[in-house]
Amino acid sequence: MKFVLLSGGGGGARFARGLQDALEPGELTVVGNVGDDVEVLGMHVSPDLDSLLYALAGLLDEERGWGRAGETWNALSAAGAWGGEDWFRLGDLDLGLHLVRTRALREGRALSEVTAELAEQAGLPTRILPATDDRLRTHLVTPAGTFPFQEWFVGRAHRDEVDDVVYEGAEAASAAPGVLEALRETTAILLAPSNPYLSLGPILAVRAIREALASRHVRCVAVSPLVGGRAVTGPLDRMLLRMAGGTTPAHVVSCHEGLLDALVIDETDAPAEAPVELVVASTLMRDREAARRLAERVLEAACA
Amino acid sequence: MKFVLLSGGGGGARFARGLQDALEPGELTVVGNVGDDVEVLGMHVSPDLDSLLYALAGLLDEERGWGRAGETWNALSAAGAWGGEDWFRLGDLDLGLHLVRTRALREGRALSEVTAELAEQAGLPTRILPATDDRLRTHLVTPAGTFPFQEWFVGRAHRDEVDDVVYEGAEAASAAPGVLEALRETTAILLAPSNPYLSLGPILAVRAIREALASRHVRCVAVSPLVGGRAVTGPLDRMLLRMAGGTTPAHVVSCHEGLLDALVIDETDAPAEAPVELVVASTLMRDREAARRLAERVLEAACA
User: Fold this and answer.
1) From CA A22, how far away is CA B40, in angstroms rounded?
2) pLDDT range class, residue B304, cuts 50, 70, 90
3) A:B CB pairs within 8 Å
4) B72 — contact with chain A (CB < 8 Å)?
5) Please, are residues B269 and B225 in contact by the beta-carbon 8 Å criterion?
6) Is the pTM of this model over 0.90?
7) Which has the least CB within 10 A, B113, B118, B256, B264?
8) What distance in Å separates residue A81's CA from the closest CA in chain B?
9) How far is B99 from chain A (nearest CA, A)?
10) Which helix (H) or strand (E) holds B115?
11) What is the pLDDT of residue B162?
12) Looking at domain B3-302, which of 2.60.40.10, 2.40.420.20, 3.40.50.2300, 3.40.50.10680 is its CATH number?
C-alpha cells in the first residue's frame, strides 16, 4: 500500500503525522505546498515543508501549531536591533534549518533534494516532496491591492478580504522529481485538511499535478478543513464565504471540482449534501491519537 | 585630537574600549583586521570587526572574551543536527548580526558601509573601519600544510607550528574608504596589543596602509601583546619563538620594522632593550578600568 497526501502546514501537518502513525514505514509520501515560501534575511524559508518536517519528526511546537518546541528567539531579536527585518518570526532552532537549506540551494541543489536529505537526517519513515522545485508564489488579490502571501498573512495579519488568489509561476512549473511517479503508484490520493486556496491550490496549480489528479484511476479523498462551518485557525471561512459563496461541505468540494471522490467532514457539519460521497468523522485533531484515528478513518474511506 | 587604532579582536577589542572610555566621542577610529573573515553556513563572518563592535557597544561576553554576553547556541546546534557545518561557534544573538551583514553584502554593499551602519545602529562614539573592502584572507603555512586562518585556528585548534603567514589578496587590496584619510588626520597612530602576525599583519599587508605608516609624520605607538614573555591568550608566544627567534620586546618590535616609534610593554617584561622607545605600564586589562588606565598611558606616550 502506498499513499500520497497533498498538504499545507498547520492542520495538514498534524494530519500527516496521523497518517504516518497509522501506516507502515515507507507507505506515505507527502507533497507539500511551496506557495508560501519566502526570503527572509537572505534565507529561503519554506514554512509548509518545515511544518511537515517538524510534525513528522516530532519536533513541532504542538501548542503554537508551527515552529519548533523549546524555541528561542535571540537571533531575530538581535537582527532587528541591528536594523534587519524582523517581521517574519523565525526561531533560533528553526534558523538552523533555514541556514542549512539556504546554503544547499545556493550551491545549486534542488529544493526536493534538500528536503529529502533533511527528512533522511531526521530519520523520517515518510517521504516529503515539494510540489515543485520551480519558483511558485501565492499572491492575494484584495481590495487593498495584491500582496505576496507572507506579506498579507503575516505582515498584514490577513486582515484584507480576498477576491482572488494567483499562483505566480505555476503555469511554467514542473512537478518536483518523484511527485508524478508517486501519484502513479499510489493506492489512493489524499488531500489534507488544509486551506483549499492557500495550501492545496498552489500544489494543484502545477499543471502536471492537477492533470494527474483529474485523470486518476484511484480514489481521491479530501478531509474538510472546516469544523462546524468554521476554520479551526486562519482565514479560510471568510475566504470561502466571499469566494465560494458559503462554508458548507459542498462549498469545500467546489474548490476542487472534478478532483474529489469523497470528502471527510466533521460531525458538526453533518448532515450535508454534496456532489461527492461524504464521510462523517471527528476531524478536530486535539492530540496525536485523535490525528491517528482520523487518519485511519480517511484511509478506510480511501480504500473503500 | 584624533587617534587611529589598528586592531584585531580579543585584547585589541578590550584596548579599543579602554581608548573609547579615555577619549571624547568622535576622537577614535579603529581599523580592524579582516584576514580572519570566514564564510560559515553561507554567512559572511568578520570575527574581529564583531569583537570590536561588541566590545565598544558593551555587548561583549567579558569572560569568554569573544561573542555576546547572554548568548545561546540553538541555531548552530540545530544546523549541526540537520547535517550543516557546526565547527565554527556562532551564537544566536551573534547570528542576528551575521544575517543582517550578509544580506547587505549580497545586495552589493561594501563591508565598510555595513560596518558603519552597524556602529551607528549601536550608537557608538567610535568609528570602526575594516582595513579593506576587498577580499583579504590570512593563511598559515605549517609543517602539516597551508590552512586558511579559521581552519587552523578553530578547526585544528592552532596546534600546528607556523612557519609563515600569507595574506591572500593583500597585494591587490585597497584600503577601505576612510582609512587613509583617518591616518592622514590622526594625532598619533596606535597598534593594539594584538597578534602581530595574525591581527596586525593582515592590516599592514594592505600596501597603502603600510606605506601610510612608513611615511607617517606622527608617532606610532604599539602596545606589546606579551605579558612576561607569554601571550595572554592564543598562540603568539609559540609563533614569535619560531618565526622571530624569541619573545622579548625587541622581537615584538622586529615584527613591525620601521613602523614603530615606541612600544608599551608590561612591567613583567621590563627592563628590556629594543631599537625603539620602550614605555613600561601594566598592560594586563583585568577589567574595563584597567583598559582605560592602559589607554591613558598609551595616549600619553603617543602625544609625548
Assistant:
1) 40
2) confident
3) 114
4) yes
5) no
6) yes
7) B113
8) 8
9) 6
10) helix B111-121
11) 97
12) 3.40.50.10680
| CA–CA dist A168, B208 (Å, integer) | 51
Distance CA A153, CA A159 (A): 8
Work out the number of other CB atoms within 10 angstroms of the CB of residue A79.
25
**What per-residue string of b and e applies to B164-196 under the rule 16 or more CB within 10 Å gives b?**
ebebbbbeebebbeebbebbeebebbbbbbbbb
Residues B150 and A133: their CA atoms lie apart, in Å, by: 35
Phi and psi dihedrals of A22, rounded to 5? Answer: -85, -20
Question: How would you classify the pairing of strands A3-7 and A188-191?
Answer: parallel
> Could you tell me the end-to-end alpha-carbon distance of chain A, in angstroms, rounded to an integer?
14
Q: In chain B, pLDDT over 90 holds for what percent of residues?
A: 98
Q: What is the pLDDT of residues B73-83, one digit of tens each?
A: 999 999 999 99
Q: What is the CATH number of domain A3-37+127-302?
A: 3.40.50.10680
pLDDT of residue B265: 98
Residue type, A108: G
* Other Cβ atoms closer than 10 A to B144: 12
Q: Are residues A93 and B80, on separate chains, in Cβ contact within 8 Å?
A: no
Q: Which residues contact B251 (CB under 8 A, 6 or more apart)?
A: B240, B244, B245
Q: Identify the pLDDT of residue A61.
A: 95
Amino acid identity, residue B297? R
Reported confidence tier of residue B246, pLDDT bands at 50, 70, 90: very high
CA dist., res. A186 & res. A2, Å (int):
5
Assess whether pLDDT exceeds 90 at residue A89.
yes
